[in-house]
Amino acid sequence: MSILSDLINLNLSDITEKVIAEYIWIGGSGMDLRSKARTLTGPVKDPSKLPKWNYDGSSTGQAPGQDSEVILYPQAIFRDPFRRGNNILVMCDTYTPAGEPIPTNKRNHAAKIFSHPDVAVEEPWFGIEQEYTLLQKDVQWPLGWPLGGFPGPQGPYYCGIGANKAFGRDIVNSHYKACLYAGINISGINGEVMPGQWEFQVGPSVGISAGDELWVARYILERITEIAGVVLSFDPKPIQGDWNGAGAHTNYSTKSMRKDGGYEVIKTAISKLEKRHKEHIAAYGEGNERRLTGRHETADMNTFIWGVANRGASIRVGRDTEKAGKGYFEDRRPASNMDPYLVTSMIAETTLLWKP
Amino acid sequence: MSLLSDLINLNLCEYTNKVIAEYIWVGGSGMDIRSKARTLPVPVNDPAKLPKWNYDGSSTDQAPGDDSEVILYPQAIFKDPFRRGNNILVICDVYTPSGEPLPTNKRYDAAKIFSHPEVAKEEPWYGIEQEYTLLQKDVNWPLGWPLGGFPGPQGPYYCGIGADKAYGRDIVDAHYKACIYAGINISGINGEVMPGQWEFQVGPSVGISAGDEVWAARYILERITEIAGAIVSFDPKPIPGDWNGAGAHTNYSTKSMRDDGGYEIIKKAIEKLGLRHKEHIAAYGKGNERRLTGKHETADINTFSWGVANRGSSIRVGRDTEKNGKGYFEDRRPASNMDPYVVTSMIAETTILWKP
Asked: What Gene Ontology terms describe what this protein does at the molecular function level (chain A) (predicted)?
């Protein structure tokens, strides 16, 4: 109804200094995003100037009922694409009242790794390719798929156009602009190989901001699917059989890799990652074994392979990087439901701090 | 819901200099259009200033999985009618990492022909009449046709109006304005003889830009049918029987033909085309034999004929051209699913370069 959207789209800047801040955090499962809003007396641009807040952790699987307060520490601010004006989204992490990060808080440990001098000096850049699947509400069957059946086999859908090939583009395109508006470093989007599956990329982002930006991009995406009446899935293998899974390929480089001679640094880094393959895999997302089969453009979960332009490898190096003798590489192992704080900091830790 | 369109229609120019570039290319079948988007730091007007990009050719039947990178070379820029602002559409062609055009890259050879000095100095103009059929989604039966049956016979539909004669005008009109907005030289539209079939014309365009503009127009059309929930078909004979096929009549002239005395040049050119009829037909679109029957305003596929004002001939010369002694002619043989790079360059090659 036009009256409701008049209200939703009210531009309060003409009437008051007050702004609305939506505090966002990750709940007890490690993947459930939560948020609530509060009014601030005036616009704020610096997270350290935002008040800490708290919420009922017993309702998110993060605290017992008789001692339920969990404290929210604001860490990053983005413009709110839904409320617009001077209103903001605030990415937070979660602490006990005594100031300890709660177990599900992966950001705290990642921030420590990124502020280690040996890591900070290398300015680690990340580009994360977030794949996801859109599902019809209530039936949880992919968007565009016939109920009780399947679409034609994979082939026409990758970067495809047309009503029989691309399902849900409105969601993808509104997400792209909303993220740019919010100040997230979203670098692109494309339709994926499985129909109803899409991808967006965030980066290059430095250190801890890769995780902040990706989580807020996920938040904005789920808010948009909420408006569209569609369900968002980050499951790494939503449909069994000859259908691609969903990953979160993580592109990575350090200052040394980006300089002349960087290709040797890249090869050394890859060999360290190979030695810790099991540890990384364990942290790269639940259910990844259903996705990393060696088929559908993945490498088998128990094998570590790397190669130039090889999409069936665990780690892929682009031809540009090989030719220029410097650049970046792509870790193709992380699943779509990975925690970006965990994955980015672990890659930095293994390649920069760990000694075999 | 209005909120999703608020986001889709966000004008980012007020918030950032960043623009979104949608890179478009033709996939492995020669007719499947693909695209994906990336963020650029500032607006770009010159294709030479756009970065090359790459995509997964193993997902479009254009490369094997273990060596899957295909490189996109930007060739032409149009304004993006969907994202508007300073956002752009980029027509690309496709190369191996070592710089060889892929077999499906028809633009490359066409560009060579058009930059040949003897061709370039003749300034070849093209006007392409792109016919297409709209189909209902899922059933793939023409739009407006009763399921399990047929509409009344052809007669009332050509340039017709009314809910019982014109099916899908919203798509056609949205496409017309979108193409003008994009900077495509769209010269007109009309409803066709078969109900649910339409035509748009692009031109006059010089040399290689004819192909770029037709492909960009096809892309915009399929994006629009995607929004409308209808399917666009470029099949040359979508419904067998007493129903017109769909063609891509190609109007052509050179500087000499447009000058006084041009009519003689036209007749010589037509004669050369007659000597290479088989070669041209082989390149004029798959399935054309179902369309070029000698009925329904076509000439039989095995016969080459030409005439003034004759819609049953292979090549038609307009009465104006005959009267003025100069002008252009219309090659009526190409099918709706022809590749405009192939057809335009072949006509130029045969009439200007080829010696019988």
From this structure: ATP binding; glutamine synthetase activity
What's the Rg (C-alpha) of chain A? 21
- Cβ proximity of A331 and A347 under 8 Å: yes
B34 and A159 in contact by Cβ < 8 A?
Answer: yes
Give the model's pLDDT for residue B124.
Answer: 98
Average pLDDT over residues B63-79: 91
Q: Tell me what ipTM this predicted complex has.
A: 0.91
Residue A242 structure tokens: 């000859």
Handedness of CA A42, A45, A50, A54 (dihedral sign): positive
User: Are the Cβ atoms of A190 and B226 closer than 8 angstroms?
Assistant: no
Nearest CA-CA distance, residue B290 and chain A, Å:
25
d(CA B150, CA A320): 55
- Whether chain B has a CB inside 8 Å of the CB on A173: the answer is yes
Which residues in chain B have Cβ-Cβ distances shorter than 8 Å to A163? 137, 225-226, 228-231
Query: Residues A50-80, buried b or exposed e (16+ Cβ, 10 A)?
Result: beebebebbebebbeeeeeebbbbbbbbbbb
Q: Decide if B39 and A79 are in contact by the 8 Å CB cutoff.
A: no
Residue type, B138: D
User: E strands of chain A, at which residues?
Assistant: 19-26, 33-40, 53-56, 69-79, 88-95, 125-136, 186-191, 197-206, 230-233, 248-253, 306-308, 315-317, 329-331
Confidence check: pLDDT of B66 > 80: no
> In Å, what is the CA distance from A8 to each residue of A24, A41, A315, B4, B149?
20, 20, 46, 12, 47
Higher-confidence residue of B68 and A177: namely A177
Query: What does the pLDDT average to over A291-296?
Result: 90
Q: Is the pLDDT of residue B1 over 70?
A: no
The enclosing H or E element of B281 equals: helix B277-283
Rounded to whole angstroms, how far apart are CA atoms B252 and B123? 11
Q: What value, to the nearest 5°, has the Cα angle with vertex A180 and ends A177 and A185?
A: 135
- The partner residue sitting opposite A186, judged by closest CB among B4, B8, B39, is B39
Per-residue model confidence (pLDDT) at position A1: 59
CB–CB of B35 and A186 under 8 A?
A: no
A180 touches chain B (CB under 8 A): yes
Q: Which amino acid is at B135?
A: L
The answer to whether residues B333 and B248 touch, using CB atoms and an 8 Å cutoff, is no
**The pLDDT of residue B3:** 82
By the 10 Å C-beta count (0-12 exposed, 13-18 middle, 19+ buried), B277 is classed as middle
User: Residue A307: its chain B contacts at CB < 8 A?
Assistant: 66
Closest alpha carbon within chain B to A187: B39
- A146 contacts on B by Cβ (under 8 Å): 138
Q: Among partner residues A2, A164, A176, which is closest to B20 by beta-carbon distance?
A: A176
